[in-house]
Q: What sequence folds into this?
C-alpha cells in the first residue's frame, strides 16, 4: 500500500550514523502502523508496544531508569538485546508522558536500537504538558496514499509503468484518467482502498468513512481541554466538508455564532493534527515565498475520498470525463492539491496560492510551485489558454516565462501572450500527473529569467 519511496526513506534512516528516534506524523488511520510493520522485516527482531494497553504503558511508568526500562522491554517481549538488530515501535506514545521523555535517553544511551514512535496527534494538541525532546528526535510525515501508490495497491502494474513516464503517451491518457477518477472518488485512506481491492464495491465504503469521522470526533470528546473547545472543534470537523476549496473567515465559520479566536484555535488544532491545511496566499510573484497571514486562507482537507463522501458527490464522479465539471471544479482542485502536497520534499514548504486583490482587477491563481528559485503558477482548468485570466495577470509581472495548466487533456507546450503582449510558455499537463510537476519542469527547465 506504500510506495518504495516511503520505505526507502525509512531504510535511509536506518543506515544513518547519527540516527535519532523517529516520530511518524499523520492523521489517525492513515497507515502509520502498517508502514512500520512492513519496515520491520528488515530487522532481526521487532518489538511493538501500544501505550493504549496498560501492560505496555506500565513499563514506562515503573522504570524511570533507561537501562532498567530497556531490560524490561526485552524481557517482557522474550527478545535478546545482544547481537541482533532490533526495531522498537512505540504506538500511541502521547498516552504516556514519561515515554516521550525517555526518547532522548534512547538516543544517548542506546544508539544501536532503532526506535520509531507514532500517535494520534489530535489528542496531544490539547495538553500543554506533552513536549517532544527538541533536537533528540526526527520526524517523517505519513500522508494518505498517493495515486502512484494506489496504482500499485490495485495491481494496475501496466498503468503504473505508463504513469511513471514523463510525459505519458497520449494513447494511454483515457485509461489513466479513468483510474485517476476512481482514485479521486475513493481517496487515499489505506482501509478504504483495501476494502475496495477486496470487494470492488463502492457501496461498502460508506461504513468505513463513517467510522473514520467518528474516530476524529471521539478524539475531541476524549482530549478536549474544556467543553467549549470540544464543542467548537466538533462543529469545525463537520463544517469543513462544506467549506473545502473556499477562502474562509474564522468568525462565524460554518454558519456558527463562534468568534474568530475560538474558531482559529480549533482549526489550527485540526491543522496540527493533519486533518486540514490552511493555505494562505502569496501576494508577490518573487521570492521569498512568504504567505500573507493577514488574508483569508483557503481550506484544504487531508483526503479527497472523505470529502466526496460527506459532501454527497460520489455519484457525480463515477463515469465523469473531466473532474473540472464536478462541484464547481473544487474536486479537481482539491485532489491536485493533495497530490502536490504529497510530492513536496519538505514539510516546512507551504502549499499556497496567489492573489491580487484590487477593486478593478482582482485575480487568484490556484497554486504556486517553488522550482529552482522561481515561483511557478498553476491553474487547474479546462478550456482554451486565452481564458486563463488570472494566470495571465500573474505572468504579466513574473520574473520567468513558465506557467502550468493542469487539465484532463494531454501534455503540450504552447507559446502564449498576455493582454499586454508579453510572451510566456504554457505547459499543459494531465492532472493525474500533479505529483510529478517537478519532473515536467526539469524536462522544460530552460526557464528564461526576464527581470
A:
Amino acid at each position: 500500500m506504500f510506495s518504495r519511496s516511503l520505505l526507502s526513506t525509512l531504510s535511509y534512516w536506518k543506515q544513518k550514523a547519527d540516527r535519532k528516534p523517529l516520530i511518524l506524523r499523520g492523521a489517525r488511520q492513515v497507515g502509520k502502523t502498517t508502514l512500520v510493520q512492513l519496515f520491520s522485516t528488515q530487522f532481526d527482531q521487532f518489538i511493538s508496544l501500544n501505550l493504549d494497553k496498560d501492560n505496555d504503558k506500565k513499563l514506562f511508568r515503573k522504570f524511570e531508569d533507561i537501562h532498567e526500562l530497556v531490560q524490561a522491554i526485552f524481557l517482557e517481549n522474550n527478545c535478546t538485546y545482544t547481537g541482533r538488530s532490533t526495531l522498537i515501535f512505540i504506538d500511541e506514545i502521547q498516552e504516556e508522558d514519561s515515554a516521550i521523555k525517555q526518547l532522548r535517553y534512547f538516543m544517548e544511551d542506546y544508539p544501536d536500537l532503532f526506535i520509531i514512535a507514532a500517535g494520534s496527534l489530535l489528542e496531544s494538541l490539547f495538553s500543554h504538558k506533552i513536549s517532544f525532546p527538541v533536537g533528540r528526535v526526527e520526524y517523517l510525515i505519513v500522508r494518505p496514499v498517493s495515486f502512484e501508490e494506489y496504482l500499485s495497491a490495485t495491481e494496475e502494474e501496466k498503468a503504473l509503468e505508463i504513469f511513471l513516464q514523463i510525459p505519458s503517451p497520449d494513447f494511454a491518457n483515457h485509461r489513466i484518467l479513468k483510474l485517476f477518477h476512481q482514485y479521486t472518488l475513493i481517496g487515499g485512506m489505506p482501509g478504504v482502498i483495501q476494502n475496495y481491492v477486496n470487494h470492488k464495491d463502492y457501496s461498502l465504503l460508506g461504513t468505513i468513512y463513517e467510522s473514520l469521522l467518528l474516530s476524529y470526533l471521539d478524539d475531541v470528546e476524549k482530549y478536549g481541554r474544556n467543553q467549549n473547545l470540544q464543542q467548537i472543534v466538533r462543529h469545525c470537523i463537520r463544517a469543513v466538508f462544506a467549506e473545502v476549496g473556499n477562502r474562509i473567515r474564522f468568525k462565524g465559520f460554518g454558519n456558527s455564532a463562534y468568534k474568530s479566536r475560538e474558531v482559529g484555535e480549533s482549526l489550527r488544532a485540526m491543522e496540527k493534527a493533519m486533518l486540514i491545511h490552511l493555505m494562505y496566499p502569496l501576494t508577490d510573484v518573487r521570492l521569498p515565498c512568504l504567505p500573507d497571514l493577514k488574508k483569508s486562507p483557503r481550506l484544504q482537507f487531508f483526503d479527497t475520498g472523505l470529502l466526496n463522501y460527506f459532501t454527497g458527490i460520489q455519484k457525480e464522479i463515477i463515469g465523469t470525463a473531466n473532474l473540472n465539471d464536478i462541484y464547481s471544479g473544487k474536486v479537481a482542485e482539491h485532489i491536485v492539491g493533495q497530490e502536490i502536497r504529497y510530492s513536496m520534499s519538505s514539510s516546512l514548504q507551504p502549499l499556497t496560492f496567489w492573489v491580487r486583490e484590487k477593486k478593478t482587477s482582482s485575480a487568484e491563481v490556484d497554486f504556486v510551485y517553488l522550482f529552482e528559485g522561481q515561483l511557478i503558477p498553476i491553474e487547474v482548468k479546462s478550456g482554451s489558454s486565452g481564458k486563463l485570466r488570472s494566470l495571465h495577470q500573474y505572468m504579466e509581472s513574473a520574473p520567468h516565462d513558465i506557467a502550468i495548466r493542469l487539465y484532463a487533456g494531454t501534455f503540450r507546450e504552447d507559446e502564449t501572450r498576455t493582454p499586454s503582449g508579453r510572451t510566456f510558455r504554457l505547459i499543459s499537463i494531465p492532472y493525474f500527473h500533479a505529483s510529478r510537476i517537478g519532473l515536467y519542469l526539469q524536462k522544460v527547465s530552460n526557464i528564461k529569467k526576464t527581470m
Notes: The chain has a mean pLDDT of 90. The first strand starts at residue 22 and ends at 25. The domain at 4-141 is CATH 3.40.50.300 (Rossmann fold).
